[in-house]
TrEMBL record:
Gene for this chain: flgG
PANTHER family from the UniProt entry: FLAGELLAR BASAL-BODY ROD PROTEIN FLGG, FLAGELLAR PROTEIN
Flagellar hook protein FlgE/F/G-like D1 domain ranges (all copies): 96-159
Biological classification of the source: Bacteria, Pseudomonadati, Pseudomonadota, Alphaproteobacteria, Hyphomicrobiales
UniProt key word Glycosyltransferase: no
PROSITE patterns the record matches: FLAGELLA_BB_ROD (PS00588)
Description of how the protein assembles with itself and partners: The basal body constitutes a major portion of the flagellar organelle and consists of four rings (L,P,S, and M) mounted on a central rod. The rod consists of about 26 subunits of FlgG in the distal portion, and FlgB, FlgC and FlgF are thought to build up the proximal portion of the rod with about 6 subunits each.
Keywords (A to Z) from UniProt: Bacterial flagellum, Cell projection, Cilium, Flagellum
Protein name: Flagellar basal-body rod protein FlgG
Family as reported in the entry's similarity comment: Belongs to the flagella basal body rod proteins family.
Annotated Pfam families: Flg_bb_rod, Flg_bbr_C, LlgE_F_G_D1
Superkingdom as given in the UniProt entry: Bacteria
GO biological process, one term: bacterial-type flagellum-dependent swarming motility
Organism: Methylopila jiangsuensis
Residue span(s) of domain Flagellar basal body rod protein N-terminal: 4-34
Length: 262
């Protein structure tokens, strides 16, 4: 009976939807996390009477047809790349991007990753690195005798050194942005990779045209809205429940049919 398979596709789709929602909620407090949403499409139709077919020798046409659908499928899980809330941290090397752009990260295998997570630290040599020790591009090294470090809204890094009154420029941070940032591939650890769908990165200083600015001692929070996710979860649960009831109804109809044959 076709209804069994149609309803089962609906249950599978809503199960995947709940998995996405659970991942969003699990990352409610993950720095720079971007929520995902599920997108669905209907499956193929079996045409019992094709619309527009002739119904008589006089050439009359069928105004409506009879099409039976076969269910639903999950086609995409795009990330919503909207700005998350920016919160103060009082840490010198914490950076947030207000607007467009990603920090560039050197991976150990030579690839470049991109992130909105600006919770940076200094390694043993004074280089600016991520929490996993990956170097932030372009490399910035803070000397041992630095008394204070300032990173302005355009990404310029300055430090006041011992015995000096004027600050010294240590380097310039840059941001990368993409034509289709939703096309980036998530690799975990708050990192994204360039893909053919995202396009090649456009790199420039923070504050340049089309790029956001940097905020020192701030971090961008997840853009997950707990109320929205709970509402979506309830909707997905109810849709799953209704599909399960269709399976139960189809099963009862099959039982009735089988009983007639006894």
């Amino acid at each position: 009976m076709r209804a069994l398979y149609t309803a089962s596709s609906g249950m599978a789709a809503q199960e995947a939807n709940v998995e996405l929602i659970s991942n969003n909620i699990a990352n409610l407090r993950t720095t720079g996390f971007k929520r995902q949403r599920a997108e669905f499409q209907d499956l193929l139709y079996q045409s019992m009477r094709r619309v527009g077919s002739t119904t008589s020798e006089a050439g009359t046409l069928l105004p409506t047809g009879v099409d039976i659908g076969s269910g639903v499928k999950l086609v995409a899980t795009p990330r919503v790349m909207s700005q998350g809330t920016v919160a103060p941290t009082e840490k010198t090397y914490d950076l947030a991007v207000r607007g467009e752009g990603f920090f560039q990260i050197d991976l150990p295998d030579g690839r470049t990753a991109y992130t909105r997570d600006g919770s940076f630290e200094l390694d043993a040599t004074g280089q600016l690195v991520t929490a996993d020790g990956y170097v932030v591009q372009p490399g910035v090294t803070v000397p041992d005798n630095a008394l204070s470090v300032t990173i302005n809204s355009t990404g310029q890094v300055e430090a006041t050194l011992q015995g000096q009154t004027a600050p010294q420029v240590l380097g310039q941070l840059q941001l990368a942005r993409f034509v289709n940032k939703s096309g980036l591939e998530a690799m975990g650890d708050n990192l994204f990779l360039e893909t053919a769908a995202s396009g090649t990165p456009l790199v420039d200083n923070p504050g340049a045209e089309g790029f956001g600015t940097t905020l020192q001692a701030y971090l961008e929070q997840s853009n997950v809205n707990a109320v929205t996710e709970i509402s979506d979860l309830i909707s997905a649960q109810r849709a799953y429940e209704m599909n399960s009831k269709v399976i139960s109804a189809a099963d009862q109809m099959l039982q009735s049919t089988a009983g007639m044959l006894r």
